[in-house]
Amino acid sequence: MCLAVPMKVLEIQGDPDDFLSDQVALVDIDGISKEIRLDIVDRWPDVGDYLIIHAGFAIHTLEPEEAEENIRLMQQMAAATDIPDNPSEMP
Amino acid sequence: MKYLDEFRDENLAAPLLQELHRTFSKPFRVMEVCGTHTMSIFRNGLRSLLPKGLKLISGPGCPVCVTSAAHIDAILAIAEQTNMRIALFGDLLRVPGSTGLSLANGSAKGAKVDVVYSPMDALEIARSHPDEMIVFPGVGFETTTPGIAATILAADNCGIDNFTVFSTHKVMPPPLLALLDDPDLKIDALLCPGHVSTIIGASAYVPLAETYKLACVVGGFESADILQAMIMLAKQINRGESKVENAYTRAVRWEGNRRAQQMTAAIFEPVDMEWRGLGYIPQSGLGIRSKYKHYDAVTRLGINLIPAAEPKGCLCGEILKGKKEPPACPLYGKRCTPGTPVGPCMVSSEGTCAAFYTYGG
Ligand code: SF4
Hints:
The structure holds two protein chains of two kinds. In chain A, about 15% of the residues lie in helices and about 30% in strands. Chain A is built from one helix and five strands, in the order βββββα.
């Protein structure tokens, strides 16, 4: 049921404070644009943001800092045994 | 693709696996609660790569698999009535009810069935078929329910009359409590579901961790995500800790998604719910509040749940409890395959039997 692929926002319609307006984002899926509902998203996205989507609804707007923190922790754990070829690239 | 490729990098998963082997020092049993985790673990062949002594148990987190035979029978009974059209998520199509028949057989007999990707699509079908009643079987956990709540609200706002939801929605913490109270089932750690946690927040597992002295880590769905979560669990086990940690910070916050929580609470209220294999669990389901009963298939169509036996010989109940593995079922791979499923654990792509069959135990 869960798609782990975050999708990029191309366009936004509707008013975040008005549930009666059609709250919709156009997102890019492999070059095809698709309408995704924003009724339940945690943070109202901007164009260019990435969304996590479930059954046609955005459930989370990715925060770049949170994603970077995520990958940094992983790389740190991975580096515990593996000495990277280019250590200067490690955080 | 951004926010995806970097987490799928082979240069990440391989050293994380080494680090897991290095960290692992005490055997433990971890339940992966979510069907999407089960599938990812099999698809990526992680089971055979994990340290010996790190035992994975698949939990009750495949929404189709835990839908009771009585609920499936009720959906089949609605489909047989004239002027009814069932709009549903595709993985429900082939789940057999107590007689062994499914909606896939039913639609061959003339029942009107549409597979939709989103509940909003079902509302569109209602708009374009004003002479029929559209019934949407609401199946899913905390991730799915807010979208269905938003769809009911949209139906109400637009005055759409011929749309109802048959709610068999379930919430995740109560069945975990029921399983953890079972003295036969020894679990030391939980790999907490990814996107259920996006909605309910990592904090939702604190009572579980404290009461049952469980190590809990919320994890994402890529190999690297799962390995990272396992390393964090192994470290907790080594230190004798039982706390909640979040390894999936790009999708999950401590407090969850408040907006989605409010949407669900506006439309739904807690009810007792039957789970396949687990029986009735108090307050583990969500029913539609009386304010929105116009959209409730149970009141609108007068649905009566008739207790129903599970398909004969099917061990899904034991499998969903994590007590047995699919090859222990005498039907597994013989009468029951993904092409000819006998039980729901073989129908859903997230079911443990389907995962075992497709990718090998
Ligand atoms: S193999 Fe089929 S019959 Fe056996 S437990 Fe799994 S779904 Fe049920």
